[in-house]
Write a structure and sequence with these properties.
The structure holds 2 protein chains of 2 kinds. Chain A is mostly beta strands. In chain A, a hairpin with a 2-residue loop joins strand 4 and strand 5. Chain A is globular. Chain B is mainly α. Chain B is 54% helix and 0% strand. The chains are: A mainly beta, B mainly alpha. Chains A and B meet through helix 1 of A and helix 1, helix 2, helix 3, helix 5 and helix 6 of B.
């Protein structure tokens, strides 16, 4: 009954379009055919391959990056009943239906902005007349993971550019297109998506990840840059950064703290992800030569010494993907949480028994070193599978804590005390 | 836009079909290009049989959202609901996987392709038999032209992956190697 009646015509066009990708038989001779009888597995990986270090065994073959479902979960399908918080705290669904909801920022008028990584959208949760609704305020963007807000302006970080929308909260129903302020950035897919934030120095901080699992790279990668809010005056602020997807500033002394993800395929138990503190501009945190402050990399670390790099203040667990983090400066939670850091651990893929997939609270000593790391929000990991994956945390003005979940496309709100449900 | 006239007609019967229709009936237009039972005989067009439902769902979603650009598929998917996407991807996963070829293929090319596939650990995420898992597609016995095209598109990032993995993996792989990899995986037995 059916035939591909349009195929000849459209494929003629498709054929022209894909002409660049068709290979003539004459072009198919490899430059270096493998020697006859050579054991294939013994061949070295090409330099820069993300597979370097991956052992050739059955357990390792079971591990692959975990991709979230593309569709946001319906509100009644969210894993709310499975989530656990310490006694006295409550969790509720704040908003749902935002596919791949990632990093968060709050506007002056209470709008919550949410970036995404695997779709092309920036969302806004709009609070109006005591009701919340979700809007798409920008689309057609490329991996717009990062959002930041200052003085009425929303900043959006895509894979290789940063743009802004002025007076966004006055134009939520018909927002203008973002205006690019900075695009002097590499275009690598690996670790190319960005978290951004504005520091107490009123500068915009923009990371550039290492372009692969464990690679030597040029001096445009593996760093955190900072720049003026118009994109001018960019400079490198921190070096030896493999892939940071979260940072904030200590409210006491204004020092920047950032999470950094350790390399894959070294082992099940190391290296651990890092919580770092920047004491002065220009510090080097070691990647890809030294990980977690005391492991010299097996391939790239020869001739290097961890003592020449700044060690992390906290270790966040192996492969746990410590991402978004915020200091708790609110007044709703008990006093023991004051100036503690909440960190979202997205959860491991490069580990047989998954680890992370939770929010932990890091309490600091007076000198800014880590006193304790405790679980805070758990339950996203069930039978070694994810039912949700937290990406970022953010304080609302009332001191409650929002948590984004890119697996379900949802935002949860954590409150303390007699359950106070936010206005619907 | 003359080239879209006929697909638009097909789309009309596809998108405006009533809910009473079975998924088999609704999927009939897919087979016009993707082949009877989902084994494609159309140039550069993938076989669908044996595909993982989570992978198929991601691709249908990306076509709908124009995150993956191929005009006929963008048109086909644009009016599908989330439930439609789930129904089609679950249905695709029930189709028989494409059959391996009867002949063993060119021994030298198969050896080169196998060496490359092992060297680049394709057999890790995609499984040792290239059957894939979850969001990682079944690639065994996929059409050779489609495999070569797709690998090249991942390498130059003209096809955006759902995540960064394939763009990352393909960086060190040369054009000549892509041809041998595609040949090997298409002829895998």
């Amino acid at each position: 009954m059916m035939n591909c009646s349009f195929a000849p015509r459209s494929l003629l066009l498709a054929g022209a379009f894909f002409g660049a990708f068709t290979f003539g038989a004459a072009a198919q001779q490899p430059a270096n055919p493998p020697a006859a009888g050579a054991a294939p597995a013994a061949q070295p990986l090409p330099p820069g391959s993300p597979m370097i270090g991956r052992p050739d065994n059955e357990a390792a073959a079971k591990l692959a990056p975990v991709a979230p479902p593309p569709l946001a979960a319906a509100p009644d399908k969210l894993p709310l009943a499975k989530l656990k918080v310490p006694a006295g705290f409550n969790v509720e669904v704040y908003a749902a239906g935002m596919a791949n909801a990632r990093s968060m920022a709050q506007g002056d008028k209470g709008t919550v902005f949410i970036g995404s990584r695997l779709v092309d959208k920036v969302y806004a949760i709009v609070n109006k007349d005591g009701k919340r609704s979700v809007k798409v305020i920008a689309s057609g963007l490329y991996r717009p993971n990062g959002v930041a807000f200052k003085d009425g302006t929303l900043y959006i970080a895509e894979l290789s550019k940063v743009s802004k929308i002025d007076r966004i909260e006055d134009n939520l129903d018909n927002p203008p297109k973002p205006t690019v302020i900075y695009d002097n950035l590499p275009k690598d897919e690996a670790h190319g998506w960005k978290f951004i934030a504005i520091g107490p120095d009123n500068k915009l901080y923009v990371p550039v990840g290492q372009p692969g699992n464990n690679v030597l790279h040029d001096d445009a990668h593996g760093q955190i840059r900072r720049m003026n809010l118009d994109g001018s005056g960019a400079e490198v602020y921190a070096l030896g950064v493999r892939n940071t997807v979260g940072f904030d500033w200590n409210p006491e002394n204004k020092q920047m703290y950032f999470t950094d993800n350790g390399r894959d395929w070294l082992s099940e138990t190391v290296p651990e992800d890092e919580l770092n503190r920047v004491a002065k501009a220009g510090e080097d945190f070691g990647a890809p030569f030294c990980y977690q402050g005391n492991i010299i990399d097996q391939e790239l670390g020869w001739g290097k010494d961890c003592k020449n790099y700044t060690a992390p203040v906290g270790l966040m667990g192996p492969h746990t993907a410590a991402l978004g983090m915020r200091f708790y400066t609110g007044s709703m939670f008990p006093k023991s949480y004051k100036n503690a850091i909440f960190i979202a651990r997205h959860g491991s893929w490069n580990k047989s028994q998954k680890q992370g997939g939770d929010i932990v609270v890091v309490k600091l000593n007076k000198d800014g070193t880590v006193k304790s790391i405790e679980p805070f929000l758990t339950g996203f990991l069930e039978d070694n599978k994810y039912v949700g994956r937290p990406v970022d945390v953010m304080l609302l003005k009332d001191g409650s804590l929002l948590v984004s979940d890119d697996w379900n496309g949802a935002i949860y709100r954590i409150t303390y005390g007699k359950s106070k449900v936010a206005a619907k | 836009m003359r080239k879209m006239t006929v697909p638009a007609l097909l789309l009309a019967s596809f998108a405006f079909s009533t809910n009473a229709e079975t998924i088999q009936e609704r999927a009939a237009p897919c087979f016009a290009c993707h082949g009877e039972h989902g084994t494609s005989e159309t140039e550069n067009t993938p076989s669908l049989g044996g595909q993982q439902a989570p992978y198929a769902l991601i691709q249908l979603f990306m076509f709908r959202e124009k995150l993956r650009v191929f005009e006929p598929m963008n048109e086909m998917a644009k009016s599908l609901t989330d439930d439609d996407l789930r129904a089609f991807s679950d249905f695709i996963a029930t189709l028989p996987k494409p059959a391996p070829p009867a002949d063993a293929g060119d021994a030298a090319r198969m050896a080169r392709g196998q060496a490359l596939a092992q060297q680049n650990h394709c057999n890790s995420c995609h499984n040792t038999d290239y059957s894939g898992k979850e969001n990682v597609p079944h690639i065994a016995n996929q059409r050779e032209d489609y495999l070569a095209k797709t690998l090249a598109e991942y390498k130059d990032n003209s096809r955006h992956g759902y995540d960064a993995t394939m763009a990352d993996v393909m960086q060190p792989v040369t054009k000549e190697q892509i041809a041998d990899l595609a040949y090997y995986i298409a002829h895998y037995r």
